[in-house]
Structure formats: structure tokens, C-alpha cells
Design goal:
This protein is of the alpha/beta class. The chain has one domain: 3-Layer(aba) Sandwich (Rossmann fold), CATH 3.40.50. The chain contains seven helices and nine strands. Helix 1 crosses helix 2 (42-51) and helix 2 runs parallel beside helix 3.
Length: 239
């Protein structure tokens, strides 16, 4: 995976701080509107809290999307948008016109995905070239709402179903095609529970969605991880 930079930091907080620095540098250098797809989860939450301490940054340029969302009503505690609103949008006082959210609570999820795709293309072009995409990685290898063992959805945004045991199985997600076409992708991975999966992805033993996205990219791509998540790197031995 020679096109991917592995960046190892001491702790989850350090991962958040480094990621915030990279985003702010890109935001400051942008000549016009700056589009970014945000991720859910505890490590991104730390990142957004870091970003919210920099209100003097040129946030008026920012256009915020979500990499994926659960089909729950607006304001629900389990929606990614609720966490983003609390940790980033409100603290920075961003205008609602800068924030693009899928209407994932509506019954017709495919119509919601089509609407969100239209919003994405209107801002990021066709194909969509988001300035930055933030991704995480689940212990099962999923990223955004793209899950191992599920067929890859077509288009740029799709209505998908998570595994039955997953909370809020009905979801909207950016597809692998959207993620591959982004200008920059930062994958944030922390914790020992992700170590084996990270090693499998980075060392070419995993064929899941994150591995496919990383393999498909040709522009800036970083795996920004903490020490605990690297515990299994280089430990695999062939039988």
C-alpha cells in the first residue's frame, strides 16, 4: 500500500491534534469553498473539539458533509449529525447553509440518498472532489457505512443496510467511488481493539471496503493512528 502514509501518534488525543492541524492548514490555504466529509465516533469527536478551539480560522469557507448517517430523526442522540452539531457547528457558530445533512429519518431512504447526492455534486463537482474526507474503521473493518461482505453500492451516495446486529441498520453513506475521488483522505484509527484489523488492511491481507478504498486512491491518503492500534503491525507470519 505504497500510496498510503502511515502516521503514528502517541495517543488518541495526539491523533486528534495532528488531524486538526492538517485540516486547519488545508482550510487556510484554500482559495475558495472548502468541502469536508466528517465521520462519527469517539476519535473524530476529539478532533472536532480541537477544531472548535480555533474560531479565528476561516470557517466561512467550510462546507460540511457527513460520510454516513443513520436513518433516525434529526436530533437523535445516535445520529452522527447530532455529535457534529454539538462539538463543531454550534461552538463555531457555523451558518446552516454551510452544513449539508441527509434527511435520513424519512421513510424513503433511497429518495433521501438521491437528494444528498445532488447536494454533494452541487458543491463538490461531478465526480465529487471533496477537499478532505475523514474516515474511521470499525473493529469489523467497516468504514463510513460500507461493511465487509456487503456488495459495494453504486453511485456517489447510497441507501444501505448495516448488519442486523448493528444499531440503526438503515443508513445513508458516501460510496467507495466518492471516497476514492476525494482530494485527501484521512483515516483515524485508535485503540488496541483495532490493531489486528489495521495490520490486515495495511499489510494487504484484508479485502474489505477500507482496503479497497485505500488501494484505489492516487492522491494524498493518510492513516493517522495511535500506538495501541499498531500493536499487530509486522507480527504476521506465514504458516
Amino acid at each position: 500500500m505504497s500510496s498510503v502514509t502511515l502516521q503514528i501518534e502517541a495517543s488518541p488525543q495526539a491523533v486528534a491534534q495532528v488531524s486538526a492541524k492538517l485540516i486547519l492548514e488545508a482550510l487556510h490555504s484554500a482559495d475558495g469553498p472548502f468541502s469536508i466529509a466528517l465521520a462519527g465516533g469517539s476519535t473524530p469527536r476529539r478532533l472536532y473539539e480541537e477544531l472548535a478551539t480555533q474560531p479565528e480560522a476561516p470557517w466561512a469557507k467550510a462546507r460540511l458533509f457527513l460520510g454516513d448517517e443513520r436513518a433516525l430523526p434529526l436530533g437523535h442522540a445516535d445520529r452522527n449529525s447530532t455529535m457534529v452539531e454539538r462539538t463543531l457547528v454550534r461552538p463555531l457558530g457555523l451558518d446552516t447553509s454551510q452544513v449539508f445533512l441527509p434527511t435520513a429519518g424519512q421513510e424513503d431512504l433511497h429518495a433521501a440518498a438521491e437528494d444528498y447526492e445532488a447536494q454533494l455534486l452541487a458543491v463538490a463537482g461531478h465526480p465529487p472532489r471533496l477537499d478532505i474526507v475523514l474516515l474511521g474503521m470499525g473493529g469489523d473493518g467497516h468504514t463510513a457505512s460500507l461493511f465487509p461482505g456487503h456488495s459495494a453500492p453504486s453511485g456517489w451516495v447510497a441507501a444501505v443496510s448495516a448488519p442486523e446486529e448493528t444499531a440503526a441498520a438503515r443508513r445513508i453513506t458516501l460510496t467507495a467511488a466518492s471516497l476514492i475521488s476525494a482530494k485527501r483522505v484521512f483515516v483515524l484509527v485508535t485503540g488496541a481493539s483495532k490493531a489486528q484489523r489495521l495490520a490486515d488492511v495495511f499489510e494487504g491481507r484484508d479485502e474489505g471496503p477500507l482496503a479497497q478504498i485505500l488501494e484505489g486512491r492516487s492522491t494524498e491518503t493518510r492513516l493517522i493512528v495511535d500506538m495501541a492500534a499498531t500493536a499487530r503491525l509486522g507480527t504476521h507470519k506465514e504458516d
